[in-house]
Design brief:
Layout: H1 3-55, H2 59-91
Length: about 90
């Protein structure tokens, strides 16, 4: 191999290495940018979940209250029924 051929081969190898390095750098920058964007989206999602948890109650947490209200409504209905039956009986 002559000197010009060796220099040509080295320049091609150098160009290929430079291109590979540039592509690798571009890929790494894209990955870093995507990771940053993903982190921001995760923070926003967690903020939405926290806001939802602050403003809403879980069904398990509220069920004892609902049961108490339903029991109270049943008692109120029985009292109304007794009152209406007494009024019908006394009014007849």
């Amino acid at each position: 191999m002559s000197l010009p051929e060796i220099l040509q081969l080295l320049s091609v190898l150098f160009a290929a290495a430079a291109l590979t390095g540039a592509v690798a750098k571009w890929i790494l920058m894209r990955i870093a940018a995507e990771a940053k964007a993903s982190e921001q989206r995760d923070k926003e999602l967690h903020a939405r979940v926290d806001r939802f948890n602050d403003t809403h109650m879980r069904r398990d947490d509220i069920m004892p209250h609902i049961t108490r209200i339903e029991d109270g409504m049943g008692d109120l209905n029985r009292r109304f029924d007794q009152f209406i039956l007494r009024e019908k009986r006394d009014g007849s």
